[in-house]
Amino acid sequence: MVYASIFASRGKRLESVSIAAEKTAELLELDVKIITFSEEFAPIYVYYKNGDEKPIPIYCHKSGESNIQEIYKALRNMMFVLSFHPKHSTLKQIRKDVMRFS
């Protein structure tokens, strides 16, 4: 899940974060949902959510340059870390896929 304000959605930052999130989701066979808010805030947040569980923040892009490859790498790294948590055992199955592309 990608959370951004309408203010942030007008720029290249949301596009870069969205592309990286979609690329990560495709690798892991997950869905991506982009949610925009009418509030004005600068950061763009990416969360991992499994079913009815609470979303877990995995990335925050505050401002500045939007390098898709760096964002993608950060997202993969966080998914790898989450794959070791017992509560997220479904991610354990995809751990090899995440590492293969690191």
Explain what the structure shows.
By secondary structure, the protein is an alpha+beta fold. Helices cover about 45% and strands about 20% of the residues. It is built from 5 helices and 4 strands; from the N terminus they run βααβββααα. It has helices spanning about 5-10, 10-30, 70-80, 90, 95-100, and strands at about 1-5, 35, 45-50, 55-60. Strands 2-1-3-4 form a 4-stranded mixed β-sheet. The longest helix is centred in the N-terminal third of the chain and has 17 residues, at about 10-30. The radius of gyration is 13 Å and the shape is globular. It starts with a strand and ends with a helix.
> What Rg do the Cα atoms give?
13 Å
* Class by SSE composition: alpha+beta
Taking strands numbered 1, 2, ... along the chain, how are they ordered across the largest sheet? Answer: 2-1-3-4
Low-confidence stretches: none
Mean pLDDT level: 83
- What is the succession of H and E elements? EHHEEEHHH
The number of helical elements comes to 5
Q: What is the CA–CA distance across the termini?
A: 22 Å
What is the tally of beta strands? 4
Which percent range describes the beta-strand content?
15-25%
The major sheet is characterized as: 4 strands, mixed
Helicity level: 40-55%
**Tertiary shape:** globular
